């Protein structure tokens, strides 16, 4: 018989048998499920590692943000109408600032190069710490142009809340110390205002000088202290305290201390003279300090010091200071010759005028 040929015979090439070194066991083959589980575990480990790195980076960024915030280096655009200027008493003299126009022109041309500093006060409000003139310039530009998009906000470094009031005063003072035009009279005013603030711990103006002007030299602090009695006793009368030269202020302080009635005589000479110039006021002070025109020009002796009118009765130098604890906080009272001052962290303008007038009248009646 003829042998039938099988269809579909497949001849496979002969390959070498897979061999392994002696003593080794062939690796077991993993099924699809085991492979998927392994890949999922590796992916979870990678994700956990990445999440840990992200958390570490976020923690570092948060710590850096807190550090910058405490240093007042976080800057934002703050609306002008959200900034208050009531917490710190400024050293600025009343009246227009003759140099403000130059600052306004500079900001209009090249912008603000140094942000102001503010402290958060809650409810979207901020308290100004540094930058009174810059803030005033922005407000003037907004008023002149009406461009709220450009001048309605101001760059401001935000100081962390909770800083001591003395620290805020020092920041303001240190900024003012670099101003070339700040006078000893203005610095004496700052010391007096600091001592009069019921929220500060030091109420002696002489000691306040050491706190506020710590960065100044001993001699400069001594000059500031010499100006304090001049500012304290003539501050409400003088219009140009910031124009008093150092030598004149020191001489005037000595004359006030040595010659009774000097303060009252100066007040009498300047009373009602509202249109006087800087020169007019300084000439009066020089006359009472013994620095006449001949002395300023280096010719001859000084003009006789003292009032040109009959002597005035000596002015009492005593001053009484005390504090009262009220629901609104500590009220500081200063009583002096011809002056009674009450400082309390409260907005007295919010009280009805008739009620306020009745309260003051009742108090004065009790003092009769």
Automatic annotation (TrEMBL):
Domain of life of the native organism: Bacteria
Domain annotation ParB-like N-terminal: ranges: 76-177
Extent of the signal sequence: none
Pfam families listed in its UniProt record: ParB_N
GO biological process terms held by the UniProt record: chromosome segregation
GO CC terms of this entry: chromosome
InterPro entries documented for this protein: Chromosome_partition/occlusion (IPR050336), ParB/Sulfiredoxin_sf (IPR036086), ParB_N (IPR003115)
PANTHER family per UniProt: CHROMOSOME-PARTITIONING PROTEIN PARB-RELATED
Protein name, as recorded: Chromosome partitioning protein, ParB family
Species the sequence originates in: Paracoccus sanguinis
